[in-house]
Amino acid sequence: MNTISMLPCAAFFADRRFMTGTIVLLMQASLLFWPWAVRWARQLNEKTNVDRMLYELSETHRVPVDPYAMPLKRFRQVA
Predict the structure, then answer these.
(1) Is residue 1 over pLDDT 70?
(2) Residue 65 lies in a domain
(3) CA distance 8 to 11
(4) Does residue 55 fall inside a structural domain?
(5) pLDDT score of 34
(6) DSSP at 28
(7) Which contacts of 15-20 are long-range, i.e. CB under 8 A and separated by 24 or more positions?
(8) pLDDT for 17-36, tens place per residue?
(9) Predicted pLDDT at 12
(10) Is the pLDDT assigned to residue 78 strictly greater than 70?
(11) Does residue 29 fall inside a structural domain?
(12) Residue 7 contacts by C-beta under 8 Å, 6 or more apart in sequence?
């Protein structure tokens, strides 16, 4: 069992969503709404992971642009 299945409210409190964490904590208090709380926390975890990966990809493939750079001169090769 992972942490999200045991304590779904911890995912929201870690993400600094205190009102949502409190609602999920109340959902955890009843066994009837526990599966919805777990599903909601897993969706949040999946969304944050996707956002983190997209941010890393955009930072990795970012090309620095120098506005003062001169275009490269091309010379013909003499055979």
Answers:
(1) no
(2) no
(3) 6
(4) yes
(5) 82
(6) H
(7) 15/44, 15/48
(8) 889 889 888 888 888 888 88
(9) 84
(10) no
(11) yes
(12) 28
- C-alpha 49: how far from chain center: 4
Alpha helices in 7-70 (DSSP H): 8-14, 18-29, 34-60
Question: Quick check: 12 and 44 in contact, CB under 8 A?
Answer: yes
| Coil, helix or strand at residue 64 | coil
- Please give the mean pLDDT across all residues of the chain: 81
Structural domain includes residue 69: no
CB 37 within 8 A of CB 8: yes
Read off the tokens for 67. Answer: 């506005």
Residue 65, helix vs strand vs coil: coil
Tell me the residue range of the domain where 24 lies.
7-60
Measured CA to CA, the distance from residue 31 to residue 8 in angstroms comes to: 13
- 19 burial level (CB within 10 Å; 0-12, 13-18, 19+): exposed
Overall number of domains in the chain: 1
